Structure formats: structure tokens, C-alpha cells
Amino acid sequence: IRNPVPEKILHGTTIEIAWTVTPSLILVLIAIPSFALLYSMDEVVDPAVTIKAIGHQWYWSYEYSDYNQSDSEGLLF
């Protein structure tokens, strides 16, 4: 059985450019609508209620800055 010497491929520049540029273009095409959606959801102009969530070591606490505590009932959403 003969073992021929394989051909040496010195450069694969075209395929290297293709598999570098193609995923980059796909990521850019995904990023453009994602950033548009992110910035459109950035800030609410007139929120109905503002809630401040504070993280402690073992629990969460919440402050409702727009809530007037005129009655003894809790806040329902």
C-alpha cells in the first residue's frame, strides 16, 4: 500500500475572512434592533407609581414614593 504525500495548503485566506465576517455581520444585524428596543424602553415619561427596590443581604425591601398612606389598607396592584 502506497502512502502518497498529502498536498500542503498554505493559505486559506478566503475561507478565514468568510468565517470571521459572516458571524460579525449576523451579530450586528441582531444588535441594531436590540439597541433600538432597549432605548425605546429606557424611561417612562409619566409612571403611575414609582417603586424603589432595595437589596439587603438576606431580603428585599420596597419603598413606594408616590403612595399616600391615608388608610390602613395595603397597596394592591
From TrEMBL:
It comes from the Eukaryota. InterPro entries: CcO_II (IPR045187), CcO_II-like_C (IPR002429), Cupredoxin (IPR008972), Cyt_c_oxidase_su2_TM_dom (IPR011759), Cyt_c_oxidase_su2_TM_sf (IPR036257). Residues 46-77 form the Cytochrome oxidase subunit II copper A binding domain. The chain crosses the membrane at residues 17-39. One of its GO terms (molecular function) is cytochrome-c oxidase activity. It catalyses: 4 Fe(II)-[cytochrome c] + O2 + 8 H(+)(in) = 4 Fe(III)-[cytochrome c] + 2 H2O + 4 H(+)(out). One of its GO terms (cellular component) is mitochondrial inner membrane. One of its GO terms (biological process) is ATP synthesis coupled electron transport. It holds the Pfam family COX2. Its cofactor is Cu cation. It is a multi-pass membrane protein. Binds a copper A center. It is found in: Membrane; Mitochondrion inner membrane. PROSITE patterns: COX2_CUA (PS50857), COX2_TM (PS50999). The keyword Oxidoreductase does not apply. Keywords: Copper, Electron transport, Membrane, Metal-binding, Mitochondrion, Mitochondrion inner membrane, Respiratory chain, Translocase, Transmembrane, Transmembrane helix, Transport. Residues 1-45 form the Cytochrome oxidase subunit II transmembrane region profile domain. The keyword Electron transport applies. Coiled coil: none annotated. PANTHER family: CYTOCHROME C OXIDASE SUBUNIT 2, CYTOCHROME C OXIDASE, SUBUNIT II. Component of the cytochrome c oxidase, the last enzyme in the mitochondrial electron transport chain which drives oxidative phosphorylation. The respiratory chain contains 3 multisubunit complexes succinate dehydrogenase (complex II, CII), ubiquinol-cytochrome c oxidoreductase (cytochrome b-c1 complex, complex III, CIII) and cytochrome c oxidase (complex IV, CIV), that cooperate to transfer electrons derived from NADH and succinate to molecular oxygen, creating an electrochemical gradient over the inner membrane that drives transmembrane transport and the ATP synthase. Belongs to the cytochrome c oxidase subunit 2 family. This is Cytochrome c oxidase subunit 2. The lineage of its organism: Eukaryota, Viridiplantae, Chlorophyta, core chlorophytes, Trebouxiophyceae.
